[in-house]
Amino acid sequence: xxxxxxxxxxTFQLQVPRVYPGAGMSGLGSRARVGAEPSEAWALFHLDxxxxxxxxxxxxxxxCKFNNRLSMRRPDYVVDVSGPTASxxxxxxxxxxxxxxxxxxxxxxxxxxxxxxxxxxxxxTNMELRACTSYHNERLHAFVKELNDYASNTVNAIAATLRxxxxxxGHASVALVAASSALIAGEWQAAIGxxxxxxxxxxxxxxxxxxxxxxxxxxxxxxxxxxxxxxLNILSNSLDSANTTKIDTCFQMSDTEFSSIxxxxxxxxxxxxxxDSRVVRLGRTALEALxxxxxxxxxxxxxxxxxxxxxxxxxxxxSEMLPRRILDQHSRTYLESNKLPREAIVxxxxxxxxxxxxxxxxxxxxxxxxxxxxxxxxVSDPRLSIADFYSRxxxxxxxxIITGHMTRAKGWSPSQFWRDLSMFLKDxxxxxxxxxVELGRFQALQATGVISLGDLVENFLxxxxxxxxxxxxxxxTKSNLLGAxxxxxxxxxxxxxxxxSQHPIxxxxxxxxxxxxxxxxxxxxxxxDIGAVNAWIGTKDTTTALHRDPYQNILAQTAGxxxxxxxxxxxxxxxxxxxxxxxxxxxxxxxSPVCVENPNPAEFPQFSSASFSETIIGPGDMLxxxxxxxxxxxxxxxxxxxxxxxx
Length: 647
Hints:
The chain is an alpha+beta fold. It has helices spanning 2-7, 38-43, 56-71, 113-118, 127-130, 136-162, 169-184, 188-207, 214-236, 255-261, 278-294, 306-320, 329-337, 342-349, 386-394, 415-419, 428-431, 453-474, 505-508, and strands at residues 12-17, 28-34, 77-83, 86-94, 378-380, 400-403, 434-439, 447-452, 487-488, 492-493, 498-503, 532-538, 543-548, 552-559, 562-567, 590-591, 613-617, 622-625, 630-635, 639-646. Strands 5-6-18-14-20-12-11-7-8 form a nine-stranded mixed beta sheet, sandwiched between helices. A five-stranded antiparallel beta sheet has the order 16-13-19-15-17, with no helix packed on it. It is globular and about 70 Å long.
């Protein structure tokens, strides 16, 4: 009936179908008059007008496309539909992560192909290993058995290949064989020590350049599996913690160095905390294993036991420690020195505590004022073709903010969904997943650790949201400069700053892949070995040091606001760039030690002469940062961002 009315090419009554889960065209919703050309009306469905079909085959293709759009399963989340050319009192019913909204979502993209197999049962896999209903010890036993079987069939061949690579192939091969033998013999401490030797050899090989062969990735995954299996057995047997071998930073770098380079180098990096906590080290090893999985280009490259290995390690970390106790000693010191005035926050917002789960949708008072001469160009998505994007911005190394792209028609969940952080608490399978966390401001007291996603929300993001809701009432002239303290009624101050930065959460929790779309501006170049999709979730005042990446970058802001400065490569000499870590690695990057918004003129006298552009991005903005361009980021509110790297 809609098609018939459209073909009349006149003002018509458009009946919007009320679509239920599993339903197609059955059921019509309320009427709404639309005074627009049919082509505009069909644009609401992200379709061309049927009148544009020039022949029968084109008409059939259009009909198939239309039916496919409306036959997609729609869930039970109701939102109003409105647009510039039409006003509807009908409602479409869908879920925050449908298999398709009106556009294609990221779940079908190649970047997540390996992740789809990582958590799902695979033919031939030990079903006891995959059964979530079995006891932890039963799954641990099945995991170790399958790991040992896999190692028996592969370790010797992998070790033989490693021996042919200089300078560290010989050391890596010896350590790998030793770790495998120790695990088979049930010598857990020896297995941990040998696995650590593997990590060290792999790191030294990276210092000499990229890993020369995929065998190194296979060896690293095996070493991670050996370490996790041995540690889980020690935890399972409840051995005295004094018997555990203390493991120093296996890649010979501090936590600060690690937080500066993690994943940006696109080569696996593994580090440990300074404390003796076995659980902290286990958690970081699990996240390193997850990062390794994101680098694989084919599902067959991932061993069948690898996903369960990660899950068991995460499960052990979350269950062994109370909230926040899985942070390392530096993190606990930071928390103890920054007491949170929870009663003051609650008193200020007691009328609506749910605000704590909602990311603010307005800029806080005193946000940075952007100088007109330094603003970054903004272009609306409908006015920017992919060809224009490459010719005007990519080829000229010019940044641009793309607006109007992150819509339901393009495969993105609405902003109100991204703002609601309670989505991370819906079930244990989500809130108990392990994530990395960094505490404190740049160049202030820094601490790193691991934490459950639910604990991050409830103990950090919740407070950050309440602080702004309270501050927006009483602080109308408050400066929002870096380092300023947030004051809450009652005279108490202080706020935890926590950042889950650069984390592959969409690989880790596959359901979130249905919430967004890979931007077409990446031109299909986002692949596991030459690109990445990362999430950045944190409180107000989180900062990313001034640095440059070896990738083209699109930063999509889904909730909250961020202040960003960009410096072109021509300004590098005035930015006091530190020597590149692993400079012989083709994926390395550089950073500056300067505190951008509060530089020390005595230490960095030329920095004030560097020219820059700046902006504030909010929900729905996508910032393109060209290859190698220096950038600094600070969150003005609680924030949720996604970035897309490609070459």
